[in-house]
């Protein structure tokens, strides 16, 4: 069965569809729109959660939820033949930047806008964006400088850095950046300039739950996407880049390598089809570059509780590098 769990302020407020090993038949209707992408990417936007059927008292107190920590879990629990509870898990963790209630007719709902990271301290509405100070010395590998910057700025989070050993500053490169997105934009452009190779994808900063990942290489473990995981047919959306949907899952993250099952992939004009041979079913290995979770808990069609992935081909039958 479809599964969600929303924890606000350390679990003081909880909405869930599954408890004590049982699916809750009367669980509240929930809508999810959760993009996950590196900070330098335009796809990195705030997540949105809407909960229907809340009491009037919660609408009147919605403002009190602003800047509270929030975790949203999703996926599937046991109940349907193809449901895989092992794929469910944390979809997004951050803080509520806006919270407001709506009352239309007999319908009451709570809307939550989620920003990544830890909640700002003090009077959140008056706190300016966090400044990040980078002290990247000439000849220093970026790993040490970036890790020091992020650990200082976000002491409550885990920072994992895995960057190319050749990513070394050609000169002293100090800087002050207004937030992690500004730092990510700089690091991505600087890394592409220093390691100027067509096959180098650039250094990226992304958040996974309470962890900040900084990397310019794929994860070493390769995960298999099964044929019955797919919802619909994958599509080439850009040169050597595909989009595919699975039943909602949290076990695949940005930078993971995945192997697709042998299947036809729909072609498009933007994919520059001269690079792709569609005469046979294709399979191969891809690197996940962005993720988007979509959910409408009580809508019946298969496309209403899915995760969409964008991925770049590394080794695919029928393609020309």
Features:
Elongation Factor Tu (Ef-tu), domain 3, 10% helix, three-stranded mixed sheet, mainly beta, 3 domains, 321 residues
Describe the 3D structure.
Strands 1, 2, 5, 6, 7, 8, 9, 15, 16, 17, 18, 19 and 20 form a 13-stranded mixed β-sheet that branches. A 3-stranded mixed β-sheet has the order 11-14-13. Strands 3-4 form a two-stranded antiparallel sheet. Strand 13 (204-208) and strand 14 (211-215) form a beta hairpin. The longest helix is centred in the middle third of the chain and has 15 residues, at 180-194. 10% of the residues lie in helices and 42% in strands. By secondary structure, the chain is mainly beta. It has 3 domains: 2-117; 128-200; 222-316, Beta Barrel (Elongation Factor Tu (Ef-tu), domain 3). The model has no long low-confidence stretch (mean pLDDT 87). The chain has helices at 56-60, 142-153, 180-194, and strands at 2-8, 13-16, 18-19, 22-23, 30-36, 47-52, 69-76, 89-104, 107-116, 131-136, 158-162, 173-178, 204-208, 211-215, 222-224, 230-238, 241-247, 257-259, 284-296, 305-316.
